[in-house]
Amino acid sequence: MHLVDCFVDVFTFVRQLTAVDSEPMSDTAVRQRLDELLATKAHLATAGGYQSQHYDDAKFAVVAWLDEKIIGSDLSIKDQWRTELAQKHYFNTVKGGQLFFEKLSALDQFDAFEMDVREVFFYCLAFGFHGKYYTDAGVQELAAIRTANYQLLMQKQGVADTKAMWFSQQPMAGGDADVGAKPQGWALMYGVPLLVVTVAVAWMRVDLLGLIENLVKTL
């Protein structure tokens, strides 16, 4: 069991929710569904030996990601969502775009449990989180952060980090815009080719390919 397993359903739900042809849901319904998904798998973290802080940090990353995903979408609820972010509800903050990277940089690369937390942060980055790096000026730094964390996770898995080239490319500019829901030419997920994400995950954890495949089907 890996910590990211606690959030697979959330990743999938948000991807489905923000897909172009998704069925509309009310703000209340979305929040209730997220409450259910987050609560349902929380016990897996404890069963896996993770401390509450490990789960909370990983949850923070996912919540910051889903906030950005929703307010950057074409959903009718996005304006209402912006006034009451999920991160405010769960963590009493509206600074997720900044705190995400502070928490990420504070993780200990020599602690196995915190490396699993880092894995959750990495998925949020791979699935398009920009946070404070949402402008064109932040593209290079965001790409460097993504690459650095990919390399750390490769080293954890004992895989040659020459494969880090997969995530060295720059994401597409566009702020909070959801380019993943509107592919042009090559299928893109927030500026990162889906093939790139799939290959990277295959090198990290083969058993998580199912997650990527499910997400790809929602595009």
TrEMBL record:
Pfam families: DotU (PF09850). InterPro entries: T4/T6SS_DotU, T4/T6SS_DotU_sf. It comes from the Bacteria. Residues 3-204 form the Type IV / VI secretion system DotU domain. Gene3D superfamilies: Type IV / VI secretion system, DotU (1.25.40.590). This is Type IV / VI secretion system protein, DotU family. It comes from Reinekea forsetii.
